[in-house]
């Protein structure tokens, strides 16, 4: 039995949740409330750095979302979610890693704006916008004329990049200058797996309270 420990507002855990759904796997979903529940000894025994997501498969613990995605792809190869061709695989991996190392940290700068909280830093916002624009240009060139990165079918690049790019219009970054990426984003937003895993207003409010409490400490 597969168990995913997650939080509904986390793009890191949403990418795993979507992959489980896209692969049609049976799994149990356990929410970890990031107001302190992540430090409980039962959870630390699974995830020693107190991070979600964590996946448990019949007693085998996996942490780090990209490692979890690789595990799921290797163990449940149908439908295939990574290209086989060398260049296409490099494209999918580039998109995953550029998302995690460049796009996600830049997008996090907008967290106060996303949550309607004070504390925006105009200089940091400007730097983040520049970084995001460089990422989007790269993604526009990498998607080329295919519906998905390096593939005719949805890949693990989509579940990683798509769950972050989907926040950009929320912070006023339009995709209209990137027509291929814009069409790709709409394709993802229309999928039932994206819709089923969208953060509810209640989840956003709960997350906001956690951030407010953390900022007070
Ligand atoms: N590199 C990790 C990052 C995981 C991560 O940072 N998770 C955050 C939520 S998005 C978390 O668990 N934060 C709570 C904590 O660290 O106490 C991955 O990709 O799985």
Automatic annotation (TrEMBL):
Pfam families: GST_C (PF00043), GST_N_3 (PF13417)
Gene3D superfamilies: 1.20.1050.10, Glutaredoxin
Cited PROSITE patterns: GLUTAREDOXIN_2 (PS51354), GST_CTER (PS50405), GST_NTER (PS50404)
Domain GST N-terminal, residue spans: 1-80
Protein name (record): Glutathione S-transferase family protein
Residue ranges the record marks as coiled coil: none
Residue ranges of domain GST C-terminal in the record: 85-207
Family annotation (PANTHER family): GLUTATHIONE S-TRANSFERASE GSTA, GLUTATHIONE S-TRANSFERASE-RELATED
């Amino acid at each position: 039995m597969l168990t995913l420990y997650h939080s509904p507002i986390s793009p890191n855990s949403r990418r795993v949740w979507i992959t489980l759904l896209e692969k049609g796997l049976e799994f149990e979903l356990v929410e970890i409330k990031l107001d302190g529940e992540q430090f409980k000894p039962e959870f630390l025994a699974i995830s020693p750095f107190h991070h979600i997501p964590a996946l448990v498969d019949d007693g085998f613990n996996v942490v780090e979302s990209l490692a979890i995605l690789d595990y799921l792809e290797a163990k449940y190869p149908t439908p295939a979610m990574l290209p086989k061709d060398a260049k296409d695989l490099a494209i999918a991996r580039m998109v995953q890693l550029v998302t995690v190392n460049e796009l996600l940290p830049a997008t996090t700068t907008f967290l106060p704006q996303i949550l309607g909280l004070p504390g925006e830093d105009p200089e940091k916002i400007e730097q983040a916008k520049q970084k995001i624009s460089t990422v989007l240009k790269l993604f526009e060139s990498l998607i080329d004329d295919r519906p998905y990165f390096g593939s005719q079918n949805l890949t693990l690049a989509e579940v990683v990049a798509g769950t972050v790019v989907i926040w950009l219009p929320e912070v006023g970054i339009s995709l209209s200058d990137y027509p291929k990426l814009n069409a790709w984003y709409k394709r993802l937003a229309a999928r039932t797996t994206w819709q089923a895993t969208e953060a509810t207003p209640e989840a956003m409010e709960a997350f906001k309270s956690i951030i407010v409490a953390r900022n007070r400490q």
